[in-house]
Write a structure and sequence with these properties.
2 domains, binds magnesium ion, three-stranded mixed β-sheet, alpha/beta, binds adenosine-5'-triphosphate, 320 residues, Rossmann fold
Length: 320
């Protein structure tokens, strides 16, 4: 498997090219890993997984939920690179608290022609007909926004409203989140937004939405890669040698899971697809740079990029 890194002048290592992907709907792993000494989490997909090194993040979400249940609305931003475990964290949190909550879940998709308010359609189907009818008939978007807010305000149970992958959110969804976010303080609800923070350049529209959220009501839950110890534990459970798994994957749980589920020495099809799905979105110049890097064994040094590929920082940024 070719997990390529570049070493910058400051020898900061950045995983290159395979750490995120775009249009892909990942196939579920054929094997899920069950580690030995943390509580099992049953996923909606019916598979079982355990989360390693996510205690602090779960604690932060639980704290937000406690405040929401006391009528102090909260927004939790769960962010990190592709495959870092955002969905798994939210699923684990919901599974642990489902009995106490009403959950409304919407997803943004990487569609080429996104529908306005895509995730709100998911949510409207989970509520009784009012919002769906309104979405079909209302000619003013504000009427739809305020209907959702009212639904959260008037609910007898604390609501957790999850919108997944808001880096793909359509403009109307981002407006909706600004609107509801700015009014969340007195509402018994927790809004959880997940996003890939490695896919946002400085002009990404998500920044505007995030910048409008009330800072006192917003909590950030940034997810980091797994440590060598955690990766070794997963390898042990999968009956595989831990050697090189951390170096090859950078501790990204998706790569670790897929690598360990694949016969030794072969490249997981899911990782290959993920890499290609990301690569097709690159500009021609960035794609050429990526192909240049792919033939350099192991790590690509910055001087080599400068000398052989005349790579600008912008091109490198596009690939990373
Ligand atoms: N802390 C963890 N410990 C062990 N396995 C994990 C952990 N976090 C995630 N995983 C596993 O890694 C894989 C990827 O996780 P997940 O789909 O949640 O990533 P993601 O950040 O939501 O990715 P994407 O950006 O594509 O939405 C899943 O198989 C999940 O079970
Ligand atoms: Mg996810």
């Amino acid at each position: 498997m070719s997990f390529i890194s570049i070493a910058s002048d400051a020898t900061v290592k950045t995983r290159f090219a395979v750490n995120s992907w775009g249009l892909l709907n990942r196939a579920p792993a054929t094997l899920r890993i069950v580690a030995d000494n943390s509580p099992a989490v049953v996923r909606d997909t019916g598979t079982i997984t355990n989360l390693l090194e996510r205690e602090a993040s779960l604690k932060m979400l639980t704290g937000c939920l406690r405040e929401a249940a006391a009528g102090i609305g909260r927004i939790a931003l769960v962010h990190g690179e592709a495959g870092i475990g955002k969905t798994a964290l939210v699923e684990a949190f919901l599974a642990a608290n489902r009995a106490k909550l009403r959950v409304l879940l919407g997803r943004c998709d990487a569609l080429s022609t996104p529908e306005p308010l895509g995730p709100l359609h998911d949510i409207a189907f989970q509520m009784d007909g009012g919002l769906l009818d309104l979405m079909r008939t209302a000619d003013r978007r504000l009427a739809i926004f305020s209907a959702l807010l009212r639904e959260l305000q008037e609910s007898e149970q604390t609501t957790v409203l999850v919108i997944e992958d808001v880096h793909w959110g359509d403009a109307a969804t981002l407006d909706l989140l600004k609107y509801v976010g700015r009014r969340i303080r007195p509402v018994p609800a927790l809004i959880i937004l997940t996003y890939r923070d490695d896919e946002l350049d400085g002009r990404h529209p998500l920044w505007s939405m995030l910048g409008h959220l009330p800072s006192d009501a917003t909590r950030r839950v940034g997810l980091e890669s797994l440590t060598e110890g955690a990766v070794a534990r997963l390898a042990r459970v999968a009956g595989r040698a831990a050697e090189r798994v951390h170096a090859q994957t950078g501790g990204n749980p998706f790569y670790v899971t897929e690598l360990l589920a694949t016969p030794y020495g072969s490249i997981p099809a899911t990782v290959r697809e993920a890499t290609l799905a990301r690569a097709v979105r690159l500009s021609r110049e960035a794609r050429a740079l990526l192909e240049f890097c792919s033939v350099v064994p192991n790590r690509v040094e910055r001087w080599l990029l400068d000398e052989a590929a005349s790579a600008s920082s912008a091109l490198i940024d596009e690939c990373v």
